[in-house]
Amino acid sequence: MEPSPLELPADTVQRIASELRCHPTDERVALRLDEEDKLRHFREYFYIPKKQDLPPIDLSLVDKEEDAIYFSGNSLGLQPKKVKTYLEEELDKWAKMGAYGHDIGKRPWITGDETILGLMTDIVGANKKEIALMNGLTVNLHLLLLSFFKPTPKRYKILLEAKAFPSDHYAIESQLQLHGLQIEKSMRIIKPREGEETLRMEDIIEVIENEGDSIAVILFSGVHFYTGQLFNIPAITKAGQAKGCFVGFDLAHAVGNVELYLHDWGVDFACWCSYKYLNSGAGGLAGAFVHEKHAYSIKPALVGWFGHELSTRFKMDNKLQLIPGITGFRISNPPILLVCSLQASLEIFTQATMKALRRKSILLTGYLEYMIKQYYSQDRAETKKTAVNIITPSSIEDRGCQLTLTFSVPMKQVFQELQKRGVVCDKREPNGIRVAPVPLYNSFHDIYKFINLLTSALDSAESKN
């Protein structure tokens, strides 16, 4: 299944079609891709929703016993089957021994978050001392900005991409207000060129080089939530640091989706949620990263007792012995039930490896792109079919698994028709439907079936216009 380094996904699809002596859009191509997928067994590690259990389903249009086409892992990942087992272990321990559970078992409650740190290192490309599992994403972003954003009369701006996720936007606005700065002057937003949906790397670098002396912090997404654009993290980091800026990333849509090497890239700080590609459940335990080079120079602005060295934490003498680096940013004891669900998923990542998952993801999303272009990229004036446009970059280096689609008919109608047919994806204003085939549990046959359901949904939406 895996394409050679020089073989693009479209070439892989066409090669297999040639071997099978069929058209590249034939179902047999999808089935062959699944046969050759060395990661296909990981689908069995997750609960796949049945169409009959989906609230918007129209049972007259589907086989209710079929699995849903779940392409919403970029919003909420599916539940690993081991979650229930791990939760029951801790509930049982709590029931049987109460407070003794703080020190006993596979996940002592005092150090529960630390017991799974090793499972996260390869996913983000960092060492254990550079990672903390705590809080929610935006809480972590605030804690990091309080320490890294120290504006001066000359260096007072925060640089971010246009249409950053609203929570990031609000966080930056409030941080600027906290320092008494004017948002209009201190919040530097890079927008795409006129008529374009995504940012050009040369434009980002140009702004950093021209205005970097006045920028204190650069905060970008790893992958943009709406367009699905994967930003060049090492290049942005290098350019920003060359101008004296701290460079951080919101990795909500990048972690578990693309390969990350935060330590080697020299990223100053980062944060992420775990309920999307990391499958930890709604509101799951978030993560944060501070590079080890800042372990003794950057300290938390707000502290709590779980940032205190464990060896003396329970002396209760009110003499803070702060743990160096990101571990010292922890404020409260870890929520052990959230640790359980995250552990269940991270163990699967350890077995699959990010490198193998990324290789499959490139082919999986490439197959989806190929099928969409085969069916919907013809000249609409000639075919009189609904036009489907992909606004996510076509280059595999510039995207993760998500494709964002726009349509020549009202997006909401298309979305509703997909829901009725058991496709789980999501819509984002102003006019995009986000489709994210996840390599851990999605198959190539899922994509083949999705294309057929999309055709049916578009036909229905067309008839209403």
TrEMBL record:
Keywords: Acetylation, Cytoplasm, Hydrolase, Pyridine nucleotide biosynthesis, Pyridoxal phosphate. Its cofactor is pyridoxal 5'-phosphate. Pathway: Cofactor biosynthesis; NAD(+) biosynthesis; quinolinate from L-kynurenine: step 2/3; Amino-acid degradation; L-kynurenine degradation; L-alanine and anthranilate from L-kynurenine: step 1/1. It catalyses: 3-hydroxy-L-kynurenine + H2O = 3-hydroxyanthranilate + L-alanine + H(+); L-kynurenine + H2O = anthranilate + L-alanine + H(+). It is found in: Cytoplasm. It comes from the Eukaryota. Pfam families: KYNU_C (PF22580). GO terms for cellular component: cytosol; mitochondrion; nucleoplasm. Pyridoxal 5'-phosphate binds at L137, T138, F165, P166, S167, D168, S221, D250, H253, Y275, W305, N333. Its EC number is 3.7.1.3. Gene3D superfamilies: Aspartate Aminotransferase, domain 1, Type I PLP-dependent aspartate aminotransferase-like (Major domain). The keyword Acetylation applies. InterPro entries: Kynureninase, PyrdxlP-dep_Trfase, PyrdxlP-dep_Trfase_major, PyrdxlP-dep_Trfase_small. One of its GO terms (biological process) is 'de novo' NAD+ biosynthetic process from L-tryptophan. The modification N6-(pyridoxal phosphate)lysine is found at K276. Its main location: cytoplasm. GO terms for molecular function: kynureninase activity; protein homodimerization activity; pyridoxal phosphate binding. Catalyzes the cleavage of L-kynurenine (L-Kyn) and L-3-hydroxykynurenine (L-3OHKyn) into anthranilic acid (AA) and 3-hydroxyanthranilic acid (3-OHAA), respectively. Has a preference for the L-3-hydroxy form. Also has cysteine-conjugate-beta-lyase activity. Homodimer. Belongs to the kynureninase family. PANTHER family: KYNURENINASE. This is Kynureninase. It comes from Catagonus wagneri (Chacoan peccary).
